[in-house]
Amino acid sequence: MLQVTQVPLLSDNYSYIIVDSATQEAAIIDPALDEPLIDLIEQNNWRLKYILNTHHHHDHVGGNLAIKKTFDCQIIASRYDRQRIPGIDQSVNHHDKIRLGESQLHVIATPGHTLGHIVYYCAESAALFCGDTLFSMGCGRLFEGSAEQMWESLQLLKQLPEQTRIYCAHEYTLNNGHFAKTVEPNNTALLTRINEVEALTAQGLPTIPCTLKQELATNPFLRTEHRTLQQTVGTTGHSEIETFATIRNLKDQF
Ligand code: ZN
Ligand code: FE
C-alpha cells in the first residue's frame, strides 16, 4: 500500500511524496521545488528511490536536480520527454510498470496538455497521480496536443474504478467549479460539490484528492456524452470530441 503525503508548493501546485508502507521506499511525484521536499524526506527518514515526472513544465520538474543531488535517486519520465526532463535517468512508455517496494505503479500515456504527458496509477491503493491532465471539475489546457488527443486520454482515465482518488497537480477546483456551472447550470451534483469546495477553500483546506466518482458526476470534460450539456454549449448532433473542444475553448476564455 502507498501512503500519500500531499505538499502544497508555489501558488497552487501540489507535489506528492508516496511511500510504500512495507519498505518505506519513497518517490516524489512532480517536485515543484526542492527544499521543502528534501526537508520532509529527511525528517521522516524515508528512502527516496525515485522522482516521477508527469511532464516537463517547470512547476513539475523544478526540484529534480537538487533533490537528485541530495538523495541520489533515479528520475523517471516519459520517453517522449527524454530531451527535456532535467536529470532524467530512465524513460517509460504507455503500459510500463514501476515497482516501489511492494507497490506497483502503472504508466498511462495521456497526451493533450503536452505530447509527452503521462500519469501514474496504483491499482492496489486506488490512487491516480494525473499531473495536469485531469483536475477536479477541469482538465489541462491544450498546449501541445489536440482536443481529440486530450479527449482520448480522458476516456482512458474514465475507465478506472470509480473509487480511484485523483491526486492532480494543481488546486484549481474553485475556479473550475465556477466555470462548470456555466455549462451545466442544472447539474445538482455539481452545485453540491461547488458548495463543498467553497467551504473548504474558505477554511484554507485542500479540495484534493477528489474521487473519480465525483468527477464523473461534476466534471464537464468527462461528461461530453450528456445531451443537456451538448445543448447548452450548442453541439447537439456533433461528436463528443467537438463537444469537448467547445467546452475547452469556453474555459480558455472564462
Ligand atoms: Zn503543465
Ligand atoms: Fe502545472
Estimated helix fraction? 25-40%
Bound molecules: zinc ion, fe (iii) ion
Stretches with pLDDT under 50, minimum 5 residues = none
SS-based class: alpha/beta
Number of strands: 14
The portion of residues forming beta strands comes to 25-35%
Q: What's the arrangement of strands in the largest beta sheet?
A: 1-2-3-4-5-6
Overall geometry comes to globular
What does this structure look like?
It contains 9 helices and 14 strands. It is an alpha/beta fold and 254 residues long. The strands form 3 sheets. Strands 1-2-3-4-5-6 form a 6-stranded mixed β-sheet, with helices on one face. Strands 7-8-9-10-13-14 form a 6-stranded mixed β-sheet. It has a two-stranded antiparallel sheet with strand order 11-12. A hairpin with a 2-residue loop joins strand 7 and strand 8. Helix 5 packs antiparallel against helix 6. It is globular and about 55 Å long. The termini are far apart. Bound molecules: zinc ion (ZN) and fe (iii) ion.
Short key terms for the protein model shown above:
binds fe (iii) ion, 254 residues, six-stranded mixed sheet, alpha/beta, binds zinc ion
Summarize the helices and strands and which ones pair or pack:
Layout (H helix, E strand, L loop, with lengths): L1 E8 L3 E8 L4 E5 L5 H10 L2 E6 L5 H4 L2 H8 L2 E5 L11 E3 L4 E4 L2 E7 L8 E5 L4 E5 L2 E2 L2 E2 L7 H12 L6 E4 L4 H11 L4 H15 L7 E2 H7 L8 H7 L6 H13 L2
Parallel strand pairs: 3-4, 4-5, 5-6, 10-13
Antiparallel strand pairs: 1-2, 2-3, 7-8, 8-9, 9-10, 11-12, 13-14
Helix pairs in contact: 5-6
The structure holds zinc ion and fe (iii) ion.
